[in-house]
Structures are given as structure tokens and as C-alpha cells.
Design brief:
Sufe protein. Chain: A; 4 strands
């Protein structure tokens, strides 16, 4: 019983550490993106996997930088989404993102709709 408790404790501490690392990277990248342009941050929470996309945009809605986090565990790391770099966010279509996983496609389309809605309000 002690071994099971020790295993559970180590697992919880490891999970806390990796989640803390992910959040620190999120806020560090968000702050650096925010210093040099508009930032679009969107997430898609699935049953087993989820995705977060962070996009830095210029005044014409062109993507300057893009980071993507997807996966099912706390081991997921931030990755550059190079296929979207320097494209206009309003001109991205489903054919442009077909190489990404389904949860990533959903979050990209959600980010595009979010950007369109924010421009309607302004």
C-alpha cells in the first residue's frame, strides 16, 4: 500500500511540475508576442486531446509568429507552426491546414472565426 501511495505522490508532483512548466512557457511567449504586435490565443478542449494556438499578427492580419501546443498529457511542448507563418489569417482555408491533426485544425479554424468576430466588433 505504501508503494502505491508513493507512486501516486510522485505522479502528482511530476504532473504539477510539467503543468507549471507549460504555463510558464505560455505566459513568457504571450508576453513577448504582446510586446511586438497583436496576439490571438485560442484553445480547443477535446475529450482525450486538446490544442492551444498562439498567433502574433501584424496590422494587416499576417501571421508573424505562431506557436502550437497539442496533445493529451502534460508532456506536450510548444511547437512552431511553420506552415502558417507569413500567411494572412483571413485567407487560410481548410486545404492549408489539412496536414495538421484534427484537434489542431479545429483550434486554427476557431482562431480564425474569433479574429473575424473581433474585427466586426471594432
Amino acid at each position: 500500500m505504501k508503494i502505491l501511495f508513493l507512486f501516486f505522490t510522485v505522479f502528482v508532483i511530476a504532473q504539477w511540475f510539467f503543468k507549471k512548466r507549460q504555463n510558464k512557457e505560455l505566459f513568457t511567449n504571450y508576453y513577448s508576442f504582446l510586446q511586438s504586435g497583436d496576439v490571438l490565443l485560442e484553445r480547443n478542449k477535446g475529450v482525450f486531446t486538446g490544442s492551444i494556438i498562439m498567433v502574433q499578427l501584424d496590422d494587416e492580419a499576417n501571421i508573424k509568429k505562431c506557436l502550437l501546443l497539442y496533445g493529451a498529457t502534460f508532456f506536450a511542448t510548444w511547437k512552431n507552426c511553420d506552415k502558417l507563418m507569413y500567411k494572412n489569417i483571413l485567407s487560410i482555408e481548410t486545404n492549408d491546414i489539412k496536414d495538421y491533426k484534427r484537434s489542431v485544425q479545429k483550434v486554427i479554424l476557431k482562431a480564425i472565426e474569433s479574429y473575424k468576430e473581433s474585427k466586426k466588433v471594432l
